[in-house]
Structures are given as C-alpha cells and as structure tokens.
Amino acid sequence: KKYASEETFARAQAGAKNETPTDVLGRYGDVDTAPAYASSKTLADVLAGSGVFDEFRSAINAIGNADLLTGDSAYTLFVPSDDAFAALTEAQRAELRDNPEALAGLVSKHIVPARCSATDLMQMSATRSIDGSSTPVGSGASRDGHSGFGSSDVIKTNIHAANGIVHVVDQISM
C-alpha cells in the first residue's frame, strides 16, 4: 500500500480475491496415493524384493512389527541399506542383537506414520517418527545439500508401495 496508489491497491486486492491458486506441485503427480504400478505391492514386498534391505527387514521381523509393512495405514520408511548396517561397529551390532529395546528404537526411528514423497521432504524441516521423536529432514539435514534424514543422506527416493513410500538412506540414525 505504501508504494501504490489507492486505485492500484484496490485492483490488486480484487484480483487476489478472484484468483484461483494453482497447484505448483501438481506437475510432479499425485503424491498422496500410490502410482498404478505400485498399487499391488506392499512395503513388505518392496523390502523383500530389493536385495539391499535384508537387515532392516530382519530387524522389523525380529521386533514383531512385520504386520506394519502389510497393513492399510500409510508409512514412510527411511531404510538404511545393508551397507549402512555393515558400517556399524561390532559393539553397535552386538547392542542391537542383544537388546531388543534398542533394536525396536532403531527401527521405530526410521518409520514415519504418513506418506512423505521426495517432494514433501524438500518442503519439510523435520518429521515425527512412530517412536515420537522428531528427526530433521530435507536439505538442512543432509551432509551434501541434497535431501537428508537425521544424520544420513537420502540416496534413493520414492520407491512406492500401496501402503507407503521407501527412501533409502546411507547411514543408520541411532
């Protein structure tokens, strides 16, 4: 208002009232549902069929949460690759192997109770995992300026399933 005449300001306000907002992210597709090619796959199918998520899938099974991967609720999994598990020290692996609560905590930290696409991650600064903890996400959480989760980089995004999305991370958030 300070730099425009009253008439110009009134026209701008009238135009804003009549303007229909556009969906700026619409060109990236519907991110709230699974694409047709993934409509028959569950998160369990994605983890079982990849060959690089065996450790995470075993951890979910070990704590008794396998039904979470096949249910109707939508989840986003930030799945550490088998290489990320291999990078743990022997002491860390022993702790996870011998302490079911620590293993459950690790798995829960990597599961978000919502469908979060890569587009969503770009717009977020944090997300809440099923354990209730808040974890930084997006470019601010990345070591290299790309998309990140906790202290890890997201190295593969948007592996869709009917009941969620998988993003692959290069490190385990402990």
Would you summarize the structure shown here?
Helices cover 34% and strands 20% of the residues.
Description:
The chain is α+β, with helices and mostly antiparallel strands. The protein has 7 helices and 7 strands; from the N terminus they run αααβαααβαβββββ. It has helices spanning about 5-20, 45-50, 55-60, 80-85, 90-100, 100-110, 120-125; strands at about 75-80, 110, 125-130, 135-140, 150, 150-160, 165-170. The chain has a 7-stranded mixed sheet with strand order 2-1-7-6-5-4-3. Helix 3 packs across helix 6.
Give the topology, please.
Elements lengths: L5 H13 L24 H8 L3 H9 L12 E6 L1 H5 L3 H9 L1 H10 L1 E2 L5 H6 L2 E3 L5 E5 L9 E2 L2 E10 L2 E6 L5
Parallel strand pairs: 1-7
Antiparallel strand pairs: 1-2, 3-4, 4-5, 5-6, 6-7
Distance between the termini: 52 Å
Structural class: alpha+beta
Tell me the major beta sheet: 7 strands, mixed
Taken in chain order, the helices and strands follow as HHHEHHHEHEEEEE
Low-confidence stretches: none
Number of beta strands? 7
Mean pLDDT: 85
**Helix amount, in percent?**
25-40%
> What oligomeric assembly is this protein in?
single chain
Could you say which overall geometry the principal axes of the C-alpha atoms support?
elongated
Number of helical segments with 4 or more residues? 7
Spatial ordering of strands, largest sheet: 2-1-7-6-5-4-3
What is the rounded Rg? Answer: 20 Å
User: What share of residues are in beta strands?
Assistant: 15-25%
